[in-house]
């Protein structure tokens, strides 16, 4: 195991309006994907926490379950599939909805994945940031305007 944890980035922008914004954890080992998704969601008013691997994301998710997770499928230290399996096995995180980003969308069946991993939406790369935001909005309580 790598003794140096992956960097974690959190939004310092306050949520619009009164009350907390939904917290979304993003997990992808491609920095340009993490940055693009983080910026899109922060601009829409979500609190965003980003991780470069599944293990650091799991540690954060276990400590404080988010409203939603957006994860890549293949990553170092813990894959997105293993991350979701860990989440579903833990009662505190079992019902957290998830979006999986994958370059292997053609190999994954949405129905099979949902049967094994619960609430899940698949987004093959490349994906539309607008469509991703629409999916995040549908799966979370909308941020306050």
Automatic annotation (TrEMBL):
Residues bearing PTM 4-aspartylphosphate: 72
Alphabetized InterPro entries for the sequence: Bact_response_regulator (IPR050595), CheY-like_superfamily (IPR011006), Sig_transdc_resp-reg_receiver (IPR001789)
Organism encoding this protein: Alienimonas californiensis
Protein name: Transcriptional regulatory protein YycF
One family name in Pfam for this protein: Response_reg
All copies of domain Response regulatory, residue ranges: 23-140
Keyword Protease listed: no
PROSITE patterns documented for this protein: RESPONSE_REGULATORY
Region described as Disordered: spans on this chain: 1-22
GO biological process: phosphorelay signal transduction system
Keyword terms of this UniProt record: Phosphoprotein, Two-component regulatory system
Keyword Phosphoprotein attributed: yes
């Amino acid at each position: 195991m790598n003794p140096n944890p992956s960097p974690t980035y959190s939004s310092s922008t306050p949520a619009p309006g009164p009350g907390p914004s939904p917290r979304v954890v993003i997990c992808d080992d491609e920095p340009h994907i993490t940055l693009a998704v983080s910026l899109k969601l922060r601009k829409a008013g979500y609190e965003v926490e980003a991780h470069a691997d599944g293990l650091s994301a799991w540690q954060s998710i276990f400590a404080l379950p988010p409203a939603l997770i957006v994860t890549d499928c293949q990553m170092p230290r813990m894959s997105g599939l293993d991350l979701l399996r860990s989440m579903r096995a833990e009662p505190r995180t079992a019902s957290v909805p998830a979006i999986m980003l994958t370059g292997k969308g053609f190999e994954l069946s949405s129905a099979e994945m949902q049967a094994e991993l619960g609430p899940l939406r698949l987004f093959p790369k490349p994906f539309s940031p607008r469509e991703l935001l629409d999916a995040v909005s549908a799966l979370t309580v909308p941020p306050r305007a």
